[in-house]
Amino acid sequence: MSGFNKVVTTYQEAMAGLTDDMTIIAGGFGLCGIPEGLTQEIKNMRVKGLTIVSNNCGIDDFGLGILLKDKQIKKMVSSYVGENAEFERQYLSGELEVDLTPQGTLAEKMRAGGAGIPAFYTATGVGTPVAEGKEAKQFNGRNYILEESITGDFAIVKAWKADKIGNLIFRDTAMNFNPMAATAGKITVVEVEEIVEVGELNRNEIHTPGIYVNRIIQGTFEKRIERLTLAKN
Protein backbone atom coordinates (compact mmCIF):
# COMPACT_ATOMS: atom_id res chain seq x y z
CA MET A 1 0.00 0.00 0.00
CA SER A 2 1.17 3.55 -0.71
CA GLY A 3 -0.34 6.87 0.28
CA PHE A 4 -4.07 6.62 0.73
CA ASN A 5 -4.40 3.53 -1.47
CA LYS A 6 -5.61 0.79 0.91
CA VAL A 7 -5.88 -2.02 -1.62
CA VAL A 8 -3.95 -5.24 -0.95
CA THR A 9 -3.72 -8.11 -3.41
CA THR A 10 -3.31 -11.16 -1.17
CA TYR A 11 -5.17 -12.46 1.85
CA GLN A 12 -1.84 -12.82 3.64
CA GLU A 13 -1.36 -9.05 3.37
CA ALA A 14 -4.96 -8.45 4.37
CA MET A 15 -4.66 -10.31 7.68
CA ALA A 16 -1.02 -9.51 8.47
CA GLY A 17 -0.48 -8.91 12.18
CA LEU A 18 -3.20 -11.23 13.45
CA THR A 19 -1.85 -13.38 16.28
CA ASP A 20 -3.10 -15.76 18.97
CA ASP A 21 -5.52 -14.52 21.64
CA MET A 22 -6.74 -11.48 19.71
CA THR A 23 -10.34 -10.24 19.46
CA ILE A 24 -11.99 -10.12 16.03
CA ILE A 25 -15.20 -8.24 15.26
CA ALA A 26 -16.88 -9.98 12.29
CA GLY A 27 -19.67 -8.65 10.12
CA GLY A 28 -22.37 -10.86 8.64
CA PHE A 29 -25.64 -12.46 9.61
CA GLY A 30 -25.76 -16.21 9.17
CA LEU A 31 -24.18 -16.62 5.73
CA CYS A 32 -25.39 -13.24 4.46
CA GLY A 33 -22.72 -10.60 4.02
CA ILE A 34 -19.89 -12.62 5.53
CA PRO A 35 -16.20 -12.00 4.73
CA GLU A 36 -15.62 -15.63 3.73
CA GLY A 37 -12.18 -15.21 2.18
CA LEU A 38 -10.84 -13.40 5.24
CA THR A 39 -12.29 -16.12 7.46
CA GLN A 40 -10.57 -18.78 5.38
CA GLU A 41 -7.28 -16.93 5.75
CA ILE A 42 -7.70 -16.90 9.54
CA LYS A 43 -8.16 -20.67 9.37
CA ASN A 44 -5.03 -20.98 7.20
CA MET A 45 -3.02 -18.95 9.72
CA ARG A 46 -3.89 -21.46 12.49
CA VAL A 47 -4.07 -18.75 15.14
CA LYS A 48 -5.63 -19.91 18.40
CA GLY A 49 -7.38 -18.51 21.45
CA LEU A 50 -9.48 -16.05 19.47
CA THR A 51 -12.44 -14.12 20.79
CA ILE A 52 -14.94 -13.62 17.96
CA VAL A 53 -17.69 -11.02 18.17
CA SER A 54 -20.38 -11.77 15.60
CA ASN A 55 -24.13 -12.33 15.44
CA ASN A 56 -23.56 -16.08 15.10
CA CYS A 57 -20.92 -18.55 13.95
CA GLY A 58 -21.94 -19.54 10.44
CA ILE A 59 -22.61 -23.21 9.81
CA ASP A 60 -20.47 -26.27 10.42
CA ASP A 61 -18.53 -26.15 7.15
CA PHE A 62 -18.78 -22.51 6.09
CA GLY A 63 -18.24 -19.03 7.45
CA LEU A 64 -16.92 -18.66 10.98
CA GLY A 65 -17.91 -22.28 11.63
CA ILE A 66 -14.72 -23.46 9.94
CA LEU A 67 -12.71 -21.95 12.80
CA LEU A 68 -14.46 -24.11 15.38
CA LYS A 69 -13.25 -27.42 13.97
CA ASP A 70 -9.61 -26.69 14.78
CA LYS A 71 -10.52 -25.11 18.15
CA GLN A 72 -9.24 -21.72 17.03
CA ILE A 73 -12.02 -19.87 18.86
CA LYS A 74 -11.85 -19.56 22.64
CA LYS A 75 -14.89 -17.32 23.10
CA MET A 76 -17.90 -16.23 21.03
CA VAL A 77 -19.83 -13.05 21.77
CA SER A 78 -23.02 -13.75 19.84
CA SER A 79 -26.78 -13.51 19.67
CA TYR A 80 -27.55 -16.88 18.13
CA VAL A 81 -26.24 -20.45 18.20
CA GLY A 82 -28.68 -21.54 15.54
CA GLU A 83 -27.62 -23.59 12.54
CA ASN A 84 -24.17 -24.66 13.76
CA ALA A 85 -24.18 -28.07 15.45
CA GLU A 86 -20.48 -27.88 16.40
CA PHE A 87 -21.01 -24.47 17.98
CA GLU A 88 -23.84 -25.95 20.06
CA ARG A 89 -21.80 -29.02 20.98
CA GLN A 90 -18.75 -27.04 22.12
CA TYR A 91 -20.91 -24.64 24.11
CA LEU A 92 -22.86 -27.35 25.93
CA SER A 93 -19.69 -29.35 26.66
CA GLY A 94 -17.90 -26.34 28.14
CA GLU A 95 -15.18 -26.29 25.46
CA LEU A 96 -16.27 -22.89 24.16
CA GLU A 97 -17.07 -19.82 26.21
CA VAL A 98 -20.17 -18.04 24.88
CA ASP A 99 -21.48 -14.64 25.89
CA LEU A 100 -25.06 -14.63 24.54
CA THR A 101 -26.05 -11.04 23.88
CA PRO A 102 -29.35 -9.62 22.61
CA GLN A 103 -29.02 -8.81 18.94
CA GLY A 104 -29.73 -5.08 19.14
CA THR A 105 -27.45 -4.77 22.16
CA LEU A 106 -24.65 -6.49 20.25
CA ALA A 107 -25.03 -4.08 17.32
CA GLU A 108 -24.99 -1.12 19.69
CA LYS A 109 -21.93 -2.49 21.52
CA MET A 110 -20.05 -2.40 18.20
CA ARG A 111 -21.38 1.02 17.21
CA ALA A 112 -20.60 2.52 20.62
CA GLY A 113 -17.13 1.02 20.61
CA GLY A 114 -16.42 2.57 17.22
CA ALA A 115 -17.74 5.92 18.43
CA GLY A 116 -15.51 5.91 21.51
CA ILE A 117 -18.43 5.48 23.91
CA PRO A 118 -17.35 3.12 26.72
CA ALA A 119 -20.82 1.99 27.82
CA PHE A 120 -24.53 2.73 27.44
CA TYR A 121 -27.82 2.04 29.22
CA THR A 122 -30.47 -0.17 27.64
CA ALA A 123 -33.79 -1.62 28.81
CA THR A 124 -33.12 -4.82 26.85
CA GLY A 125 -32.43 -7.71 29.21
CA VAL A 126 -33.79 -6.10 32.37
CA GLY A 127 -35.21 -8.78 34.64
CA THR A 128 -33.48 -11.63 32.79
CA PRO A 129 -30.14 -13.47 33.23
CA VAL A 130 -28.66 -10.90 30.79
CA ALA A 131 -28.84 -8.32 33.60
CA GLU A 132 -27.01 -10.40 36.21
CA GLY A 133 -23.96 -8.64 37.60
CA LYS A 134 -24.57 -5.43 35.63
CA GLU A 135 -25.13 -1.96 36.97
CA ALA A 136 -28.82 -0.95 36.93
CA LYS A 137 -30.36 2.49 36.91
CA GLN A 138 -33.80 4.00 36.52
CA PHE A 139 -34.65 6.77 34.05
CA ASN A 140 -38.14 8.32 33.92
CA GLY A 141 -39.53 5.43 35.90
CA ARG A 142 -38.08 2.70 33.67
CA ASN A 143 -35.27 0.28 34.58
CA TYR A 144 -32.11 0.04 32.50
CA ILE A 145 -28.84 -1.92 32.65
CA LEU A 146 -25.38 -0.72 31.75
CA GLU A 147 -23.74 -2.53 28.81
CA GLU A 148 -20.06 -2.04 27.96
CA SER A 149 -19.11 -1.35 24.36
CA ILE A 150 -16.88 -3.65 22.29
CA THR A 151 -13.78 -3.07 20.18
CA GLY A 152 -11.47 -5.58 18.54
CA ASP A 153 -7.87 -5.94 17.48
CA PHE A 154 -9.22 -6.68 14.00
CA ALA A 155 -12.57 -6.17 12.29
CA ILE A 156 -13.36 -8.27 9.21
CA VAL A 157 -16.09 -6.90 6.97
CA LYS A 158 -17.85 -7.72 3.70
CA ALA A 159 -18.97 -4.86 1.43
CA TRP A 160 -20.31 -4.65 -2.10
CA LYS A 161 -18.17 -1.83 -3.48
CA ALA A 162 -15.21 0.19 -2.27
CA ASP A 163 -13.00 2.84 -3.75
CA LYS A 164 -9.27 2.68 -3.27
CA ILE A 165 -9.26 4.85 -0.15
CA GLY A 166 -11.80 2.64 1.60
CA ASN A 167 -15.19 4.31 1.20
CA LEU A 168 -17.76 1.50 1.32
CA ILE A 169 -21.19 0.68 -0.07
CA PHE A 170 -23.12 -2.31 1.25
CA ARG A 171 -25.85 -4.07 -0.68
CA ASP A 172 -29.34 -4.76 0.66
CA THR A 173 -29.52 -7.19 3.61
CA ALA A 174 -25.79 -7.98 3.29
CA MET A 175 -25.29 -4.69 5.14
CA ASN A 176 -26.50 -6.20 8.48
CA PHE A 177 -23.76 -5.90 11.16
CA ASN A 178 -21.03 -4.85 8.72
CA PRO A 179 -21.17 -1.03 9.12
CA MET A 180 -20.97 -1.30 12.92
CA ALA A 181 -18.20 -3.90 12.76
CA ALA A 182 -16.20 -1.68 10.41
CA THR A 183 -15.93 1.05 13.01
CA ALA A 184 -14.98 -1.20 15.93
CA GLY A 185 -11.61 -2.65 14.88
CA LYS A 186 -8.16 -1.24 15.53
CA ILE A 187 -7.38 -2.71 12.11
CA THR A 188 -10.39 -3.00 9.80
CA VAL A 189 -10.05 -5.28 6.78
CA VAL A 190 -12.77 -5.24 4.12
CA GLU A 191 -13.46 -7.85 1.47
CA VAL A 192 -15.43 -6.47 -1.50
CA GLU A 193 -16.93 -7.57 -4.78
CA GLU A 194 -15.72 -4.54 -6.70
CA ILE A 195 -13.04 -1.87 -6.24
CA VAL A 196 -13.37 1.40 -8.17
CA GLU A 197 -11.31 4.53 -8.55
CA VAL A 198 -11.68 7.39 -6.11
CA GLY A 199 -14.58 9.60 -7.18
CA GLU A 200 -16.56 6.86 -8.92
CA LEU A 201 -18.82 6.15 -5.96
CA ASN A 202 -21.80 8.41 -5.48
CA ARG A 203 -20.91 10.25 -2.29
CA ASN A 204 -24.58 10.23 -1.25
CA GLU A 205 -24.62 6.42 -1.32
CA ILE A 206 -21.50 5.76 0.80
CA HIS A 207 -22.40 3.92 3.99
CA THR A 208 -19.00 3.77 5.71
CA PRO A 209 -16.30 6.42 5.12
CA GLY A 210 -12.79 5.28 4.38
CA ILE A 211 -11.40 6.76 7.59
CA TYR A 212 -12.51 3.56 9.35
CA VAL A 213 -10.87 1.21 6.83
CA ASN A 214 -7.24 0.06 6.83
CA ARG A 215 -7.11 -2.61 4.11
CA ILE A 216 -9.30 -3.63 1.16
CA ILE A 217 -9.16 -6.81 -0.89
CA GLN A 218 -11.30 -7.86 -3.84
CA GLY A 219 -12.63 -11.39 -3.38
CA THR A 220 -14.85 -13.92 -5.06
CA PHE A 221 -17.85 -15.26 -3.21
CA GLU A 222 -19.79 -18.49 -3.11
CA LYS A 223 -22.97 -16.87 -1.72
CA ARG A 224 -24.47 -20.01 -0.22
CA ILE A 225 -28.06 -20.22 0.92
CA GLU A 226 -28.15 -21.02 4.64
CA ARG A 227 -31.36 -23.02 4.54
CA LEU A 228 -33.20 -23.80 1.28
CA THR A 229 -36.93 -24.41 1.62
CA LEU A 230 -38.99 -25.45 -1.39
CA ALA A 231 -42.75 -25.37 -1.70
CA LYS A 232 -44.43 -28.75 -1.99
CA ASN A 233 -46.03 -29.61 -5.31
Short description:
With 233 residues, this protein is of the alpha/beta class.
Average residue-wise pLDDT: 93
Secondary-structure element order, as H and E? Answer: HEHEHEHEHEEEEEHEE
Secondary structure tally, helices: 6
Give the overall form.
globular
Largest pleated sheet: 8 strands, mixed
Instruction: Provide the low-confidence segments as ranges.
Output: none
Instruction: Please identify, by name, the CATH architecture.
Output: 3-Layer(aba) Sandwich
Please tell me how large the radius of gyration is.
Answer: 18 Å
Label this structure with key terms.
three-stranded antiparallel beta sheet; eight-stranded mixed beta sheet; Glutaconate Coenzyme A-transferase; 27% strand; 233 residues
Structure description:
- The chain is of the alpha/beta class and 233 residues long.
- It has a single domain, classed as 3-Layer(aba) Sandwich (Glutaconate Coenzyme A-transferase), CATH 3.40.1080.10.
- The chain is built from six helices and eleven strands.
- The strands form two sheets. Strands 1, 2, 3, 4, 8, 9, 10 and 11 form an eight-stranded mixed sheet that branches.
- A hairpin with a 2-residue loop joins strand 6 and strand 7.
- It is globular and about 50 Å long.
- The mean pLDDT is 93.
